[in-house]
Amino acid sequence: AVFFSQTDLQGYLIGEGCASPLDVFWDRSGVMFVVEKVVSCISSIQTSAFFWDCENSSPLALPISRARQLISFYTMSQNPNMNLTLVLLPPLWVRCDRSDLKQTIWLGAEPLSTGNKIIGINLYTVTCKVSKKKYSADLEELKEMHRMRHHSSNLTVKGFARYEFLDATPLDSLALEDTLISLERNIYVDFAWNTVTKLLQTPSLTSAATLVRTPPPGCCCSTRVKLLQNQGHLMTGLTDWPKPVGGKPAVELVQKLLEGNFIAFWKCLPCKSDYTAAALPGSMKTLFSRRGDLDFVELLWCKMWGKVTSYAELVECFSQVMKAIQHGALQTWVHQGSSSLLSKLIKQSYYGSVDTVPLRGVTPVQMLLEIGVDKMKRDYATYFFLGPPPSLSKDYFMSTSVDLQEQIHRVQKLHHMLEIVDNCVELLKLEHESLIFLTQSCINYYKENPLNEKHVFQLPVRATLVKEFYQNAHPQVWRVEISSGRGQGKVTTAWQLSTTPPAEHLCSSGADILDTEACGSKEEMSFVTLLECSQVPFA
User: Fold this and answer.
1) Which of 22, 347, 374, 489 has a CA between 20 and 30 Å from the CA of residue 497?
2) b or e along 243-277 (b: 16 or more beta carbons within 10 Å of the residue's beta carbon)?
3) What is the domain partition of the chain in residue ranges?
4) Residue 233 burial (C-beta neighbours within 10 Å; 0-12, 13-18, 19+)
5) Quaternary state and partners of this protein (predicted)?
6) Please, are residues 381 and 347 in contact by the beta-carbon 8 Å criterion?
7) 411-415-417 Cα angle (round to 5)
8) 360 within 8 A of 322, measured Cβ to Cβ
9) What CA–CA distance (Å, rounded) separates 236 from 524?
10) Which of 537, 479, 538, 536 is nearest to 124 (CA)?
């Protein structure tokens, strides 16, 4: 929701710890105001304020003259010499349309204070020039420019670089029976270091490196086991039955499981591919060790899932099992924590009294889903919680005290965690032991938050682990920050070269940026961003 609006502009407040539009060219955090041009959309009035439903609209920039006017008004409101009632405001940043000679994309203002007293203000200008991989800057020139502007000789120079590792599994490499959707996988490695000797310097092996896993741009979904994709069909009792693909029918397989002696079936199981791992692509299969503790219900799932081709066949399979249970012909064990209806009936058979369950309506479909969820929870738990501790985390994901829908939701979280680990293992060849911190951070996050495939997970790593991937590659972002002074007196000059626009409004407000200047070749573009700061004291 926008906190204020006029005829030509609107503004919003970015809270502490929230993503900022400045993050792409400046590593700063904190509360700030952002002002931009009004997007044409429907408004409504609530408590005499305008609220705009513009979540799906791209931000628009203001003319540079209007932006300067706003910065001037803001500066005067913070000046103690203006005989006004002063209120220390968060920094203000205004989107600019790049129409001036310097091609300004942002103007900013940040008050300087000591206690409750405002002593000055920092004024920022951010410009962006677009070219075809060309730039004329030099590190020594940038340092000299900073010295001349701020009259300082003691400089601190820091470097930052981001390398992207993008992998897309081709659709034809996965059979439809794998029940997965192929998607791009994005992993970045961010490097930061203190000794910069030239522009576009390759990060040293002593640099601080952070692995960043993000969802593909514009992607709001991810790979999912088909069981989870079809969970909504429980509401109607309908499901998409797989087409017959050869082999023995599910009814015959279930019958052999019941008649052919439990031990004999167990011995032939390792040569089968009915595990949850079989429904995972590529290296994800290797992350799942084949469990040796499958109970009868899990074995039943292995035989039925992907083999049952109709509702009638599903009912027939469960009818065979129910008859065996009711006649005492099925004396087998199930995991103590199993919560499925079928597991409960088997446990009842230990004492000679079994409830009658009518196999009609949605019941057979729900029974199949229950035993699948139980098995998948145990599969994921075996991988993520094999060693000590974390018992509390395991209890959360294995809990049977919540309803089936919530259990499915938690399995989805586990699958998303597995995807993240697989991305790091497959693309960067990192061993699982190197991912313990990332795995634990995923677990901690998902214990407290709902499924969020847009969440960015980070993992500190040694630069040596990824050296062969970045030392011969070109960074997507390279930045140098030159600063001087300390505390309130610190001022910064930043120069950045990137392959993507440093501001969202560049894409929405300037087709000439993407077409004319880059000659229609988006891949050849580079964006040269320069941030300059001027410090103005209030005498």
Assistant:
1) 489
2) eeeeeeebbebbbebbeeeeeebeeeeeeeebbbb
3) 4-151+525-537, 226-452
4) middle
5) Component of the RZZ complex.
6) no
7) 115
8) no
9) 51
10) 536
494 closest CA partner among 187, 241, 203, 125: 125
Q: Is the dihedral of CA 231, 232, 233, 237 positive or negative?
A: positive
Percent of the residues in the chain that have a pLDDT greater than 70, as a whole number: 75
pTM: 0.74
Give me the pLDDT at residue 128, please: 94
pLDDT band at 175; cut points 50, 70, 90: very low
Distances (CA, A) of 513 to 103, 249, 519: 11, 60, 9
Contact between 59 and 501 (Cβ < 8 Å): no
CA angle at residue 380 from 374 to 382, to 5 degrees? 100
Return d(Cα 539, Cα 526) in angstroms, integer. 42
Asked whether 266 and 333 are in contact (CB, 8 A), the reply is no
Is residue 361 within 8 Å of 320, Cβ to Cβ? Answer: no
CATH hierarchy code of domain 226-452: 1.20.58.730
How would you classify the pairing of strands 32-37 and 92-95? parallel
> What kind and span of H or E run contains 184?
strand 184-193
Q: Give 192-249 pLDDT, tens digit per residue.
A: 999 899 999 999 999 999 998 876 544 434 434 455 554 544 444 455 677 766 678 8
Give the C-alpha separation, 324 to 259, whole Å.
Answer: 10
The pLDDT, as a whole number, for residue 286 is: 55
Question: What Å distances lie between residue 522 and 119, 376, 501, 527, CA to CA?
Answer: 45, 43, 11, 11
Nearest to 377 by CA among 345, 417, 318: 417
Distance CA 523, CA 476 (A): 11
How far is residue 392's CA from residue 239's CA, in Å, rounded to a whole number? 35
CB within 8 A of 218, min separation 6: which ones?
none
Q: Who's near 494: CB < 8 A, 6+ residues apart?
A: 25, 26, 479, 480, 481, 482, 529, 530, 531
Quick one: tokens of 226? 């088909």
